[in-house]
Design a protein that fits this description.
It is found in: Membrane. InterPro entries: Leu-rich_rpt, Leu-rich_rpt_typical-subtyp, LRR_dom_sf. It is a single-pass membrane protein. Among the domains are: 169 residues, Alpha-Beta Horseshoe (Leucine-rich repeat, LRR (right-handed beta-alpha superhelix)), CATH 3.80.10; 138 residues, Leucine-rich repeat, LRR (right-handed beta-alpha superhelix), CATH 3.80.10. The protein is 3% helix and 29% strand. It is mostly beta strands and 478 residues long.
């Protein structure tokens, strides 16, 4: 009767008490068949080779029966569109792992447990790049677990128990499932992958906290969890903020956990082996930690860090990028800033830093980006700024005074000094009136007072001032 159903696409006879052999002409079923489920019955005998003649079959479930003899691996491997295959829990005769299955490149689900597989897992199965589940448990497989299994990017569930594997677990296990739509929490089971060296879960939709077990991964060298919805304090076991650093000893060098909701404080001293740490856009608080001697990039923007910038910077001469913007940092910029000869990007904007801009900046010839805006800096712009080859400079919203040096009076920096009422510049006659659309007024400025970020300031100067279209205050020296 079923052979007459020429449009049949879905057949499910699972979880019944059907017995006997499958018909040899099983391919007489509809050529449109996409799903065939005969699992959990009492079928016996051999699986007929003609089962491989369904050109559109996506799901073949034959597990949990009494099939014996040899399964037709060559024929099954002709099912090019197959996505789910289960042959588990059948008393097949012992046979090596079917290398033919390496051609089923669309497989996402492969359940082959308890079916007398012998030999080793073959390298050609690494072609199964879409696998989400692989179950080879309760067989007689031996040899080493191949590297491709540990480095598989889509494999979520792996069962290999009750076999005869030997050797060590792959020494450099890497998990990268970033840039997906993964949700819920980070599973505690990650902490059991003791040889994990790389854990990338960024640009997903994970929430909750980092499981404490992750902090015990002593071989972890690179962890990137940024752009998720993670929250809570980092686990003590992770020494983040207290003990992570000593647990991971000299292994962990790159930590990127920006754009989450982590909170807590940091130890006074970061590990010596750290080279890249990005904690921006979180809720970390407390003083700025002393950076590691190998640190090259430290990004801590938009947190609640407080206190002063550490005075002793001689131990971090490798730093190329330092971003402490939008925190609650106070005090002055230390004169020792000049020892950071390799620094090319420095952003201290949006803090409460006061005092003068150190002349030592003139020694930082590699500096290309400097942002000190929205602070409480005062005094003059050092003449040594003439030595810098900056692509970007931002000093607006401070209390800087005096004339802008000639080298900084160019179009590149025309917005860099806004809202520094004590600053004036003396443009050339050709540019003095260029682009001015506001009304000019000449006056003798006596004592004038302004509120800026809750503070008062006053100055005296003869000047000509105007408001341009974006209401930014300029002053011209007389």
């Amino acid at each position: 009767m079923l052979y007459n159903c020429s449009n049949l696409k879905y057949t499910d006879f699972s979880n019944n008490t059907f017995a006997g052999n499958l018909p040899n002409d099983i391919n007489s079923l509809s050529a449109l068949l996409e799903h065939l489920n005969l699992s959990c019955n009492h079928f016996t005998g051999r699986i007929p080779p003609l089962i491989g003649l369904f050109p559109r079959l996506k799901s073949l479930l034959l597990d949990s029966n009494q099939f014996d003899g040899r399964y037709p691996a060559e024929n099954i491997s002709n099912l090019a569109d197959l996505e789910r295959l289960t042959l588990a829990v059948n008393p097949f005769v012992p046979a090596p792992f079917p290398m033919e299955f390496g051609r089923l490149t669309h497989l996402t689900y492969l359940w082959l447990s308890n079916m007398n597989i012998t030999g080793e897992i073959l390298e050609n199965l690494s072609s199964l790049r879409e696998l989400n589940l692989l179950d080879l448990s309760s067989n007689k497989i031996q040899g080493k677990i191949p590297r491709w299994i540990w480095q598989h990017k889509k494999l979520h569930i792996l069962y290999l128990y009750a076999n005869r594997f030997t050797g060590e677990i792959e020494p450099n296990v890497k998990i990268d499932v970033s840039s997906n739509e993964l949700t819920r929490t980070i599973p505690d089971g990650f902490g059991k992958i003791t040889n994990l060296t790389l854990l990338f879960l960024y640009f997903d939709k994970l929430s909750g906290s980092i499981p404490p077990s992750v902090g015990l991964l002593s071989k972890l060298t690179d962890i990137r969890l940024f752009n998720n919805m993670l929250s809570g304090s980092l686990p003590p076991e992770l020494e983040f903020p207290k003990s992570l650093w000593s647990v991971v000893t000299d292994q962990l060098s790159v930590v990127m956990i920006q754009n989450n909701n982590f909170s807590g404080t940091f130890p006074a001293q970061l590990p010596w082996n750290f080279t890249h740490l990005d904690i921006s856009n979180n809720r970390f608080s407390g003083p700025i930690p002393t950076l590691a001697s190998k640190m090259q990039v430290f990004i801590a923007a938009n947190n609640f860090l407080s206190g002063e910038i550490p005075w002793d910077l001689t131990g971090i001469s490798q730093v190329t990028k330092l971003d402490l913007s939008r925190n609650q940092i106070s005090g002055s910029i230390p004169m020792t800033i000049g020892v950071l000869a390799r620094l090319n990007t420095l952003n201290l904007s949006g803090n409460q830093i006061s005092g003068n801009i150190p002349a030592a900046f003139g020694y930082m010839t590699g500096l290309t980006v400097l942002d000190l805006s929205s602070n409480e800096l005062s005094g003059e712009i050092p003449e040594d700024f003439n030595k810098l080859m900056l692509n970007f400079l931002n000093l607006f919203m401070n209390q800087l005074t005096r004339e802008i040096t000639t080298s900084l009076q160019n179009k590149t920096y025309e917005q860099s000094f806004l809202f520094n009422p004590g600053i004036c510049h003396n443009p050339t006659p050709a540019t003095r009136f260029a682009g001015v659309r506001g009304q000019f007024r000449r006056r003798e400025i006596g004592e004038e007072t302004e509120k800026s970020r809750g503070r008062r300031q006053s100055w005296r100067r003869d000047s000509i001032s105007f408001l341009n279209d974006d209401l930014s205050l300029y002053s011209w020296c007389i």
